[in-house]
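quick one, 649 residues, struct below
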Amino acid sequence: MTLLSELIDIPEQVHKGDFVLRLTEGVGRADETLDSYVVTPQLARCFNDALGFIRGALQARSSKAAYLHGSFGSGKSHFMAVLHLLLQGNARARALPELAGAVQAHDDWMHGQRFLLVPYHMIGARSMESAILGRYAEHVGRLHPNAPAPAVYQAARLFEDARRLRQRMGDAAFFDGLNAAATGGSEWGALDVWDAPHFEAALAAPPTDAERLRLVGALVETYFSSYRDVARGSEEAFVPLDEGLSIISAHAQGLGYDALILFLDELILWLASHAADLQFVNREGQKLVKLTEAERADRPIPIVSFVARQRDLRELVGTHITGAEQLAFSDVLRHWEDRFHLITLEDRNLAAIAERRLLRPKDAAARQRIDAAFRDTEKVGDSVRGVLLTSTGDPALFRQVYPFSPAFVQTLVAVSSALQRERTALKVMLELLVQQRASLRLGDIVPVGDLFDLVTDGDEAFSDVMRLNVENALQLYRRKLLPLLARRQKAGVDELERLADDDPRRRAFRAEDRLVKTLLLSALVPEVEALRGLTPARLAALNHGSIRSPIPGQEGQMVLKRCQDLAAEVGEIRVGEGVDPTIAVQISGVDVEGVVQKAQNHDSVGERRREERSAGGARRLRARDAGPLHEGARERMRRYPFYTMNRLG
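---
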């Protein structure tokens, strides 16, 4: 038996930062970023598109914005980091062989141009203004420490008014009044009094400086009560985004730049994290248009924005709103999209990246052995091969991701987009390889069911609805399905985990465990092609190698029998009619079996007599007695769970 770990390098553990690149860190560690970057032909075209897009903004002297669209693991942050390095003139980035064509095509207009490149990480931002304008001020402060700060804070206006008031009143009267805030029991308490040197030092301090914030509070308390919103907690308020963009455009021009390039990583993800707060999404989301449409025609140099987007925001917000609100929100989103250029990083890039970064053979002999094993894998039946390839895959793609399958990768991309915030698709694949380092053999295909534990563990789902679905799925698995699977092997869960991988009971348990986990994944992301309309044959194919039949081709019948046995004890599993029926699992927060057990107490002689006297009672009792009470109660619970719970108290 040859383990795959003998032919490719699989580490013994996964580190937290593996395959997760923050844009700001990627730009700062240029050599590491470029060493790990894989440029596919499709990505090379995207770089050419992005550079041409910037050229168009410069020629038109107008602000433009583009969505950088791609699923988790497609490398949006990495793409922006490398684009940042190209615009910066980094020699190593420009020397990448795969990007030679794009670099040469744009050398003429890029020569001599100065770009102010500002990388952003939007997660945790309070508003678009605090994120975009505040980050710009911080970034420029590091690049040009001696340059004047951009006037993007509302406090700048307050200070101008204070200077004029000081000139009119004179220092003595002005500081006497200002010090009333320190001695009059204000919210700032008893602090050092203000004088001219202290005052000037606070004016010149950075926006986050404590003394500057104290001065803002003192001025608002004594002279300028109309500026109440200028200081909020530990931060200063910003001017409106449209005005702020004009200010930073002029500020960047004053520093000698020809264009301002904003790399807004995780912006759409940031909006999506507030999907349940429609007011927030509407308020902040509408500001996106300001990146391209200026109410003020005074942006002396163009602002070019690249916005990372994982999914269409309508998919994430649509579950929270209905009717007229949903239509209105869709109109707003369409308004944004019509004004944004689109650069798409295709999911197919993931296969090439995984091939080079995860699945590279140790040597030529190892590659030959893996190639031979893959050719044997291709000999499976057409029905199994069709399920593993999906409608968008082909043998070449399958070979790139082997021992994973295109169906596995398709499912991984979908569940990562719905459930993950930190782990990329590449990292999940590596985690699976590490987990199965001592058991994954040459010729095996990683089952789709093995994804369930990784994608539902640890990281937070994007929406409240998805989070609730995950919790319900885990509850169903842990409370009912897992104990039932262990009982079927006449062992405890811990005992089964201690058995050797080739032990018959452990193999049987893992086979059924993968089936139910695949069903749970299909309930969480039903839109995925690989998980749509699961039949016994499809379940067997997605977990190829887990179910082994003495007669080749009978794996589907074995899966059907096992699912029927499970459905007889767990009402949430539904098996349709026919030779190859559809199998599904219903995820619900209602404990059907627990309520059914409570209902048993109501099956008494007195209850039966009352039921007989009621209208239709005799007919219902005859129908119930034709089959077990347990099954009848379960079916009623399936249809009317909350009504039944209320009736049972």
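The beta strands are 64-69, 115-121, 231-232, 235-236, 259-265, 303-309, 341-344, 573-575, 583-585.
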